[in-house]
């Protein structure tokens, strides 16, 4: 495929997985350099970008089967394509919505004034004309064809794809969505099919073995999680996005809190952007486009769909991993009825490494890729309500909310790029955990409004704070723990009593 006016190569890169070879032409050297960088980043070896004026050069040396004019159709481009394309081959003019067609045509035709017109006068392309006079398709107002029209025999070889317009449309839509996702601040985007997830059977076995603990909502949404069409009838594609939250290990005293929860609640950050990305489907694909977004709040197996779309691979610690971002990123899903060009899944690159499995403080991994949530510190400090089993309390260590151990030790996170979104950074230093023990219910809601920490509820978060203070064995925490013995919540009182025993002088 020869992509004329390729610019930064978004259409060429989108179609590369479907083509034997892709060549992008543009006279803008800076754009070509950017396109080459994108191809290298995507590890695409069948793409080449050439600096060439597509309206002055010739295409014979490239021997294309298909020519696409990316928002730059003109007489010169069509004539040159016609000289090299075999009968039955395709020439496509690609635009992302109707305005692009209109604006491109206007820019090109302004300088080609018909007889007796000002050189800057508008020229209208048929059908449609002033005073009810219609022009035939392909003609301008003075009845001249836009380009010389020649009959082409259809007896030659057919195009290798029987539906090139459909594929071009899918690729153009996917390219436009990627660009919009990046403009919205997402770090990665991948597109995949919306069929039943590949690991649905494993998910059911995981539930049946009780590994979900008290997260009964996972079982209630079992049917929907096994088929996205249950959530969005007619779903055909999945747009999966990643937003990095990779921050410092100890950002202003926030070490006891998992990295993902140190800034604003990620639901509040992600959902408006996902809704905006979904709305762009209607802009690009038309009014019949439907979509539904998910940020781990809908009955969707986000990680499974994201991995199949090529956002990354599911690691042995059950997180999705990307070679550049590591695993410290949020996943957002847009289900849509629009058919899009899809990406290929990424190969599992964990190899023989077992660092995450070996480092888990509670040995919560019963096997690679299988987590018993009932022993996971993230589950215990966030989802689990009630007392934590006495044998697991010392292993909670210094974690007051969540746990990052299995991600921190992962080699792919050692060189992961830091997050750039300021909304996901701490707004201020974390107060001492002992201060949490004095929060009543209204004060708790005020303190953690707009934060993911409110997920643990007051009972869980104060319980966790008491356990951490007990694990630190710091006598300075004893006064706050003694006051917590009178807390109205029995779970908090129990944790405070356990912690006091550990902070008492030997």
Rg, Cα atoms, Å: 29 Å
Query: What can be said about the biggest beta sheet?
Result: 5 strands, parallel
Low-confidence runs (pLDDT<50, min 5 residues)? 101-163
Count of beta strands: 13
Q: Shape, please?
A: elongated
**Largest sheet, order of strands side by side?**
3-2-1-4-5
Helix tally equals: 20
> Roughly how many Å apart are the termini?
78 Å
Structure description:
The chain is elongated. α5 (164-183) runs antiparallel to α10 (266-285), α18 runs parallel beside α20 (490-503) and α19 (478-484) runs antiparallel to α20 (490-503). The strands form four sheets. It has a five-stranded parallel β-sheet with strand order 3-2-1-4-5, with helices on both faces. The termini are far apart. It is an alpha/beta fold and 506 residues long. It is built from 20 helices and 13 strands. β2, α2 (29-41) and β3 (47-51) form a beta-alpha-beta unit. Helix content is 36%, strand content 11%. The protein has helices at residues 10-15, 29-41, 75-84, 98-110, 164-183, 200-208, 216-220, 222-225, 228-231, 266-285, 302-309, 355-359, 377-383, 393-396, 405-408, 433-436, 441-447, 457-472, 478-484, 490-503, and strands at residues 2-4, 22-26, 47-51, 66-70, 90-94, 188-193, 237-244, 291-294, 313-314, 320-321, 329-336, 365-367, 370-371. The chain has three domains: 2-162, Rossmann fold (3-Layer(aba) Sandwich); 169-350, no CATH class; 362-396 and 431-503, no CATH class.
Give a brief description.
The protein is built from 20 helices and 13 strands.
